[in-house]
Amino acid sequence: MARDVIIHQINDWSVLNSRDEVWSKVDLSTPELNFGIHKFQGRLWSSGYVGVGRLYDKNGRYLQSSGKEHIVVVNSQYGMEPWHMLETVMTDDEYDDYIAEMDADGRSLFQVFYDQPLIKLSQDIEQDGELLYALSFVTSCYGLCKKGLKKTMFHQEENYSSKVRGKIEIQKNIRMNTCKGRNDRFYCKYIDFTEDNIENRILKATLIKCKEIIGRRFPATLEVSKRVAYCMNSFRRVKTVRIKTSDFNGADASGLYMYYKPLLQQARCIYGQKYYAYKTEEGQSIAKSVFTIPYMINMEALFEFYTRIVLKRAIDSNKYSLDRYSKRLFIQKGVADISEVERGIHLMPYCIPDIIIRDNDTQNPVAVIDAKYKPNTRSTRADTHQLLSYVLLTGVKKCGFAFPGAESKAKIMRSTETAALPLAVDSIDYYELIFGNDSDNVAEALRPILP
Q1: Closest to 72 (Cα-Cα) out of 107, 109, 25
Q2: Is the pTM of this model over 0.90?
Q3: Looking at domain 299-446, which of 3.10.260, 3.90.1570, 1.10.3210, 2.30.30 is its CATH number?
Q4: Segments of the chain with pLDDT less than 50
Q5: How many CB atoms lie within 10 A of CB 153?
Q6: Cα(102)–Cα(111) distance, rounded to whole angstroms?
Q7: What's the pLDDT score for residue 141?
């Protein structure tokens, strides 16, 4: 049951108010739970995460005051809309590659804490967590359906004509067939398997609920909608029923079907949300969930993927293309595989630029862009070295960074009054692209780089 809460609304990558003593009690050793809150230069900072969740103390317990839990609500200081970005990323054909790469690094694009109690929020707090739960559930359900649905054994009885299945029920066969002179019929009892069990009924009902949420946001032609259709087809032999809370107590996810356990846990949480109706200032009636499952979104990774996708969609595909995600550029000449690199030297074997734009005709790289979820007004030594190393490896004449902002545009340099800043390195032009929620304007922002 959700408890009364004390809400702390903050922005990502911001200095926290030192006068609020709650921050001094936060456990800094568990950034994966406490939204990356950390100490830097003697001050506490938030990190590149947004979401809603509980704060934990140094003993691993929820922070409370007078019986009320301390809840943090983290928003993007750049005005970036994570739900729009997630929609964009999750419908891309490289989405599975993004997630696989993050899993290999021990990271995650988002976390939904289904093992925690729901959090009660006020109606005026902007959050759209239900979309994340729906997307998360559909992704997990798609993986489960590809593994195969759970089948339950049951005893079936049937009166067959001219054949025997299983064993003949002697007494029933005499009463229903022999006594009626129907010696051509046999009343049989046999073992059969069905997918129509309580576990699959719960998942199908939850999938239908998620389908309604996703259907309001995604066209039917996009990948996420196709996954929903795949799952619905997998559940076609399962009855559609109304799920009660007590149904979860009878669900079993053991043995060969342990992979059902996280899905059933997600379904229980999604069904635990409660919706309240209220009227807006315009008089429109809105049904909104004021109970949310705690979640945390990695905005740095999300912005990197988002930048890549909107660029891929904005460029002229007849002229340019993007290298596949996470392509390695080996530093040693003539090396194409990690097994071929020289060992025991003080030099990393490869670099992985975020975005390499290539000319389709010549197949030569024409621009390299690195996505940074940070302010574009503060220079960083490491970022500069990183970008210049990419320029050295690719031999491009155009390079730059992509930053978050209010609107998508190419930043105008003060010294040149154009979007390009000439570098003293073999006539290389440097650019800064600002990407906002208006991804439709990206093509115009790219015009100075890719005419």
Answers
A1: 25
A2: no
A3: 3.90.1570
A4: 1-2, 277-279
A5: 9
A6: 13
A7: 94
